[in-house]
Design brief:
The protein is an alpha/beta fold and about 300 residues long. Helix content is about 35%, strand content about 15%. The protein has an eight-stranded parallel β-barrel with strand order 1-2-3-5-8-9-10-11, surrounded by four helices. Strands 6-7 form a two-stranded antiparallel ribbon.
Length: about 300
């Protein structure tokens, strides 16, 4: 992996770019890898309910009928089409997946990709997605913690037992074990509260902020680094993947060159991976290779 600020592309706006040929999204993996992009990230929704007005981060960015490919399935396809690029979820709504299934799927993908999975996890904001009586919307934060601790135990590949309020099992062996020591790095898409900082310091490799303004990100990075230090971890090991603040033209359209000029400010704020949502900058499939090449060649 390249030292310094890396770049990641989030696969979004698939309906506009690929229409009814969604299988063509697999072609993006080699195009990004050849250009020198460091990571591909895939967001997650099992379904979209009618209340997108409850989206807590402003206007919901895509129409309700947008297709959301299941992230771990799509990343498995991309793993087979690439050799080096990192493969990330951004973010997987982990409390929607039973712990054993999450552990098995993530380990399988890590093995098949040659150890390239970055597991970004979050809590979700739509009650409508939590339709299983065993996976209610309430209590999902505690279930997330229990599931990730259970995954860590299962990823050892040894016979393990685990007990918590929401996940318990006795003497299970879950193989294959991930190729990456300790399992895929876990990145948390949560607010950087003191409680979440402690959670990330215990279980995580990185943080996925919703904010894009470097001045807003920097104080939270400092809080997370303090939590790492308190937990006996090197603060320099904290990863932070933040979307680059999108600059626009006078006509209100995204200006990629002006956006790329913000990358040094992100790096100074403690960001280690700059994210770019494909749908914000690309209007057709034909534009994807040039877009990837421009990102990879940017001054960082």
């Amino acid at each position: 992996m390249r030292e310094g600020l890396r770049v990641s592309i989030t696969l979004s706006g698939l309906a506009r770019l690929f229409g009814d040929r969604l299988a063509s999204v697999a072609e993006l993996g080699p195009a990004a890898e050849v250009a020198g992009i460091d990571q591909i990230a895939v967001p997650d929704h099992l379904a979209i309910g009618p209340r997108t007005d409850r989206y807590p981060y402003g206007r919901f960015p895509l129409p309700p009928d947008e297709p959301w490919l299941e992230p771990l399935t799509l990343l498995a396809v991309l793993a087979g089409a690439t050799r080096q690029i990192r493969l990330a979820t951004g973010v997987l709504i982990a409390p929607l997946r039973p712990a054993l299934l999450l552990a098995k799927t993530a380990a399988t993908l890590d093995v098949l990709s040659g150890g390239r999975l970055d597991l970004g996890v979050g809590l979700g904001w739509q009650p409508e997605e939590f339709t299983d009586a065993g996976l209610p919307f309430e209590g999902r934060a505690a279930r997330l913690d229990d599931a990730l601790r259970a995954c860590r135990a299962l990823w050892s590949g040894e016979k393990v037992s685990f007990r918590s309020e929401t996940v318990s099992f006795e003497e299970l062996i879950c193989r294959p074990r991930p190729l990456q020591p300790g399992g895929p790095p876990i990145w948390f898409g949560v607010a950087a509260t003191e409680a979440n900082a402690a959670r990330i310091a215990e279980l995580g490799a990185g943080w996925l902020p919703m904010a894009t303004d470097p001045e807003a990100i920097a104080p939270d990075v400092a809080r997370l680094r303090r939590a790492f230090q308190k937990a006996g971890r090197d603060p320099a090991d904290l990863g932070v993947r933040a979307n680059a603040p999108v600059a626009t033209t006078a006509a209100g359209k995204p200006d990629l060159d002006a956006t790329l000029k913000q990358l040094p400010r992100l790096r100074e704020a403690g960001v280690t991976v700059a994210g770019f949502a494909l749908a914000r900058f690309v209007r057709s499939q034909d534009e994807i290779p040039a877009f990837c090449q421009r990102l990879a060649s940017a001054d960082r």
